[in-house]
What does this fold into?
Amino acid sequence: MTKLRVLALVHRHLIPPATVDEGTDVTSAPWRTEYDVISTLTAMGHEVRPLGVHDDLGEIRRLADEWKPHIAFNLLEGFDDVTIFDQNVVSHLELLKLPYTGCNPRGLLMARDKSLSKKLLAYHRIAVPEFEVCRIGRPIRRHKRLTFPLIVKSLTQEASIGISQASVVDTDEKLNERVTFIHESIGTAAIVEQYIEGRELYVGVIGNQVLQALPVWELFFTNMPEGSKRIATDRVKWSVKYQKKYGIDSGPAVELADGQAEKIQHLCKRAYRGLELSGYARIDLRLDEGGNAWVLEANPNPQIAKGEDFAASAEKVGLSYEGVLQRIINLGLRWQPESFA
Ligand SMILES: Nc1ncnc2c1ncn2[C@@H]1O[C@H](COP(=O)(O)OP(=O)(O)O)[C@@H](O)[C@H]1O
Ligand SMILES: [Mg+2]
It folds into this structure.
């Protein structure tokens, strides 16, 4: 294996320690992914330099000139605390002609906007929930094709920010309240979607032109209180205490009909292509009672901590964590912006 100089771009507050004491629980550290990626690549023999990025692109340019990394491992999810600026940083890497891991800027932009991405997916005949966008400062009116229950989300925020049980609404009054909440508390436009009752599935996809879909993963809600919606709220995703209390866990999807896993994987590859993604991504879906799969969103550059959904589903088909990281690097090295656009 060629030893590479890897510039690991991480958020300034998530620079991991170079080493941790034995017995440290890395899985609960905020810099877990950064630590896993950097320590694993180093153990594999690569020379890795973490660079904490906040609001300054100059350091990236300086290191690119002086140290001449082969590739930037992009673990940034925004710039200067603005999540939608993730694509701008990647555009900057392209201007520097520095290869990078993960998704290209156009794919990031198209997947980020939950309305734009649904329009593109619908063009490709991929089932997505009906929706409507409510912009800040515009009157909130429900189109008659949207019937309750509906779910209200931020148009562009990720990681279930702003999603709680109250996001699912069944009256116009609650709809208005929740849209206003997104506008005022999250500070972005809102998207109102048809609520799809059903199971929650995730599929990792890796590749540029030739794609591999990883096994279908499921989020299980084994112990949710009666009447609550089985959705990935903020607390479901991030509170270990809540996860324990309500039996929330993920793993290979169970009891899918014959051939259904393959169909879903194929659908996810089509979604990935439709949104012009590259590198690696995770597609979020709902499976309704009739066995229909609905694509909720695509997440380019998803969470790749060791043992988390993406890495765990790769492991299931014999792709080790080291193998995943090396594959992501190789895809980045091969990606040529101008030949794809
Ligand atoms: N239309 C929908 N129908 C049912 N559940 C939904 C719908 N949209 C979102 N959800 C629930 O909310 C979660 C977060 O929504 P998602 O669009 O994936 O946003 P995020 O970018 O925050 O992950 C989903 O994983 C799902 O559980
Ligand atoms: Mg999601």
Observations:
- The domain at 198-340 is CATH 3.30.470.20 (D-amino Acid Aminotransferase; Chain A, domain 1).
- The chain has three domains: 5-100, 130-194, 198-340.
- The first helix runs from residue 32 to 43.
- The radius of gyration is 20 Å.
